[in-house]
Design brief:
- The protein is mainly α and 420 residues long.
- Helices cover 66% and strands 0% of the residues.
- The chain has one domain.
- α7 runs antiparallel to α15 and α16 runs parallel beside α18.
- It starts with 15 loop residues before the first helix and ends with a helix.
Amino acid sequence: MKWKKPTDKPKSSKPQQERERPAAVKRDTRISPAEESDSGATQPKFVQHSKFYLPGAIINRLNFGSLPWTLRFCLLALVTTLLTLGLYLAHIPAALLLGPMISAILLSLCEIRLKIDSRLFTAAQGIIGCMIGRAITPDILHEMTADWPIFIGGVVSVIIAAAIIGYILAKKQILPGTTAIWGSAPGGASVMVLMAESYGADIRLVAVMQYLRVVLVALAGALLAHFVAPAAAPIIAASFLPFSLSGFLITLLIAFGGAFSARYMLRIPAGGLLLPFILITILQNTGLFFPILPPWLLAIFYMIIGWNIGLRFTRAICLHALALIPVLLLSTLGLMAICGIFAVILSYVANVDLLTAYLATSPGGADSISIIAASTNVNMPFVMSYQSVRLLLVTLTGPFIATSIAKYLRKKIPQPADRQ
């Protein structure tokens, strides 16, 4: 039998684009911030392919972006209703927040392309601020005054831990530039994202880090509350009890007027939540006014907050952060673990139950944590007081700390523009 020279294999009839693996699934993929913008100018390299893959194969093939706006909104409302009802029947705390949030994430990955108007979200912050202020009674104010070293010390410890994690990630250049510093800040997500852009950080990764932590903290808090503490009285049972119409209208005036004034006139960072909270706390504890917040009103704005968080996880953003998801998860879970250790210490020092201490020290998402605390049998005033102190300190010091570390690292680490 004679040896035959091997012949070249015939070329595949498939086009070159179909025979190559999509860039999104190649390892060590890195996409620069300039390759994608919110205006839709230049998309990331992997988004330019006609087919790309996320961990969920089914989600990857769905695309609701071509549907009319009305149908997309109705689809979001339908999925939200079904999922929220399922979580509620399973007695999961904060089902009215988690249901809309998870529904929005799933449909956002399917390119539903909806967005919560910033004015609607500001109104929701005003309502949540009033809810937090309503929980601050003279007793808890006295407790805060007596135990102020515990409150300040615990909050400062969380801020320092977050700053150290961000510094290590940025110094090791695990994340590009100063992205890790802004993404690790324990709160003030919108402020950090805006300031990160001026320092050349990848604002999409910063947004993913901030809101991924909000989602994980909310899920962890709700699950822990489900297994550790029984849920509070169902919100639906008391949704339509009679209330004072004049008091209700005054509450709406304080919530919406305070929130919009703080955001658009005074331009206070996180003011949409803080100003109504401060106003209601002062008015209630001086006996001048007691806010009226019917459960059905809270349920509506819980849903808006959940949608606002979930709709930020678009397919393009998730693909942009795909190669770095393990790092983002580890850094977020690491910060949550450190806060868990602080919670154990706080539980012992402040003589509160462990779930109350965990919700109090949770990093970020003051509005979502407040909603979970309101739907669980915990020391709600303690949680909201602690979260309010954290929100104030992070808002005041967070930008300064992140800016200082970013300036320091820019001197130590040459930037891409400097290397050219």
